[in-house]
Amino acid sequence: MKRVVLAALFVAIGFGQANGQDAAAGEKVFLVCKVCHQVGDSAKNAVGPVLNGLFGRKAGTVAGYSYSNANKNSGITWDEATFSEYIKDPKARCRAPRWRSPGSRTSRKSKI
């Protein structure tokens, strides 16, 4: 299950060479996200919310996670296209997210 979630996540956001048949590449890319997020059956909110079931979910709705008002009121419902654009520059879509990438904006864009 975890490998399927990771592969699907990174296909959607277009990181590196990850694709549906390349879960190992997805896991490697997820190391950047794993600093703050968890996925899988035992996932818990950490610095960032769990990413299980991301697509189809409204932004700011994971129970037990404290979102910024900008995120909660963004009107975003996550799908592949929305997430791909959001991850390039979160502030452009959601004025004041609490989320901070572990890399600079330039290094994050180069991975997308």
The average pLDDT is: 76
Number of strands: 0
Q: Beta-strand percentage? A: under 5%
Uncertain residue ranges: 3-7, 104-110
Order of helices and strands: HHHHHH
Q: What is the gyration radius calculated from CA atoms?
A: 13 Å
N-to-C terminal Cα separation, in Å?
24 Å
Specify the overall morphology: globular
User: What does the oligomeric state look like here?
Assistant: single chain
Class by helix and strand content? Answer: mainly alpha
Number of distinct helices: 6
Describe the fold and architecture.
The chain is mainly alpha-helical and 112 residues long. It contains six helices and no strands. The chain has helices spanning 2-13, 23-34, 69-72, 80-88, 90-93, 105-111. Helix 1 (2-13) crosses helix 2. It is globular, with a radius of gyration of 13 Å. Residues 3-7 and 104-110 have low confidence and may be disordered.
Ordered list of secondary-structure elements with their pairings:
Layout: H1 2-13, H2 23-34, H3 69-72, H4 80-88, H5 90-93, H6 105-111
List keywords for this structure.
about 110 residues; globular; disordered C terminus
Write a concise synopsis of the structure shown.
The protein has 112 residues and is an all-alpha fold. It contains six helices and no strands.
